[in-house]
Fold this sequence. Notes:
It is built from 11 helices and 12 strands. It has helices spanning 28-39, 56-61, 78-87, 102-118, 132-142, 172-178, 184-187, 190-193, 196-206, 295-308, 316-335, and strands spanning 23-25, 50-52, 68-71, 91-94, 122-124, 149-158, 212-219, 234-240, 246-253, 260-267, 270-273, 338-339. Strands 11-10-6-9-8-7-12 form a 7-stranded mixed sheet. Strands 3-4-5 form a 3-stranded parallel sheet, sandwiched between helices. It is globular. The relative contact order is 0.16.
Amino acid sequence: GYHTEDVTQDARIGKKNIKVVAxxxxxxxxxxxxxxxxxxxxxxxxxxxxxxxFEAYKQLLAVAEINYVILATPPHFRPAxxxxxxxxxxxxxxxxxxxxxxxxxxxxxxxxxxxxxxxLGIAAGTQRRHMKSYQETIKRLADGAIGDVVYAxxxxxxxQIWVIQRQPGWSDMEWQLRNWNYFTWLAxxxxxxxxxxxxxxxxxxxxxxxxxxxxxxxxxxxxVGEEYGYIFDHFAVEFQYPGGVSMFSQCRQxxxxxxxxxxxxxxxxxxxNCKDRIKPTTGDLWRFRExxxxxxxxxxxDLIASISAGNPxxxxxxxAESTLTAIIGxxxxxxxxxxxxxxx
Length: 344
């Protein structure tokens, strides 16, 4: 369903030099839905190029004509699919997060290193890295616009997202796979699956990943029914970066509460933020405000342009480190603390 959920009437293909060759999905009905949406754009795919089941990705990667794949399955499958795609010589766009556990993160890093050797590109769905507002703001921060960074905070506080109700005849496995967001083994919990966006920005600002989670909490306050699996509905974690920089992270998926998504960076000479929804008490010293292109489009544009130029971008390590940062936060929310020595 990646960005083909509802093709609007009279929609047109913008890039004539890109061809959809094949689709792969676990479920026939999901694949048929995607295929029907693409047909609205005049993209007709034969049944021979539509693969289903757990081995579908291998069949797709065996198609010689394919040179660019989009990995948009539940995150549990991301490391194995990324590794297989790189081994097959394909450029990759991979959705975030990179994995749901430390072994998966290591596989993403290994695949990224192999991609460098093979001259392949990897872009990740951390689309803020492709937004001009973030790029320009963080460039100014790196140039010292607010002095040395001493403290930062980030939020993804929103409401409940989609839920797939269990249907008669579904096995436990099928239901969990279809309702994957609510099972940690498939999605990593929402601090990893969703809040990784903001955590990635924090790592980008500081220029590295944290040493440890100093303290963390999390729990299930509202979402307690079977349809919500066993993930938490809120987390709050304090991270420590090298050099003593502290970062507070908070995420929530509870209806009826204040929505707050964004980041704030505090320096020795001021404060900056990338969203007007977060109002610092002393005002912004610097923030880029020019509206840029659609980042969900731009992340693909940037990857394709880099491939065409012969210098493909590779975001595997960045998304892997941000994913592992979020995993540390998840574990801290369960046990109260976690560090780089405990995370593997």
